[in-house]
Design a protein that fits this description.
about 180 residues; Rossmann fold; two-stranded parallel sheet; mainly alpha
């Protein structure tokens, strides 16, 4: 291990040796600043990747090209307000109702992915999977641990919560 690698390890800033060729040297302060800024950016990117993996999304879906045309919003909420993710800060719930194929899972996943990119902890569950996991953990005497872990997330996405409501009377995606 090189001296630089050892110092990086001691300072807990990652191995800067890997980043050295990526930064142009003009003057010492600029070089160190750019090098550390790149290290911080890489750390943030790794954190976002880790948050996305921990969220356990079934598929990665983004808001790119999402069609909001069939979405009905209540008077208290519009597209911009939903996409701002202010409901996280305000600790409000968002309920999406609609028939199969109206984009509920896509939109919920995309909002979750955006939340992860902003550093929020997210967890995605199909309701039946969460129920089964809670039952399993309960039998093992570990349900409390799972509940505490879920309580620590900033955004909990429960998909397929009300399958009984997904009938033809909800032709559009309705957000409440």
């Amino acid at each position: 291990m090189t001296e630089l690698a050892e110092l990086c390890k001691e300072l807990r800033i990652g191995n800067l040796e890997e980043l050295l060729p990526e930064v142009n040297f003009e003057e010492p302060e600029q070089y160190i600043t750019d090098l550390l800024a790149l290290a911080v950016e890489q750390r943030k990117n790794r954190r976002v990747k880790r948050l996305i993996n921990q969220a356990n999304f079934p598929l990665i879906k983004t808001l790119d090209n999402y069609d909001f045309t069939p979405v009905d919003f209540p008077d208290s909420l519009d597209r911009e307000k939903l996409l701002s993710l202010n409901f996280l800060q305000d600790k409000e719930n968002v309920l999406m109702l609609g028939s199969v194929g109206t984009g509920k899972t896509h939109l919920a996943t995309a909002l979750g992915l955006k939340s992860c990119s902003l550093g929020h902890k997210v967890k995605f569950y199909r309701a039946i999977d969460l129920t089964n996991e809670l039952l399993e953990k309960h039998e093992e005497g570990k349900a409390g641990k799972l509940i505490k872990a879920i309580a620590k997330v900033d955004l909990l996405i429960l998909d397929e919560l009300c399958k009984a409501l997904h009938n033809s009377s909800y032709g559009k995606l309705i957000i409440m």
